[in-house]
Amino acid sequence: MPFIPHTEEDVREMLESLGLKEKEELFSHIPEKIRLKSPLSLPNPLSEMEIEREIERIASMNKGVMDYISFIGAGSYNHWIPSTVESLLNRGEIFSPYTPYQPEASQGTLTILFEFQTMMCELFNMEVSNASVYDGASALAEACLMALRITKKNEVILSSAIHPEYRRVVRTYLESAGFKVSEVQFKESGETDIEALEKKISDDTAAFAIQNPNFLGIIENIEKIKNLRERVNAMLISCVTEPISLGILKPPGSYKTDIAVGEGKSLGIPLNFGGPYLGIFTSKMEYIRNMPGRIVGETIDIEGKRGFVLTLSTREQHIRRAKATSNICTNHNMCAIAATIYLASVGKEGFKRISEINLKKAHFLAKELSKNGVKLRFSSPFYNEFAVKFKNPQKALEIGIEKGFLIGLPLGRFYPSLEDSILINVTEIHSLEVLSDLAKLLGEIKDV
Question: What is the mean pLDDT of the segment spanning 186-215?
Answer without folding.
Answer: 97
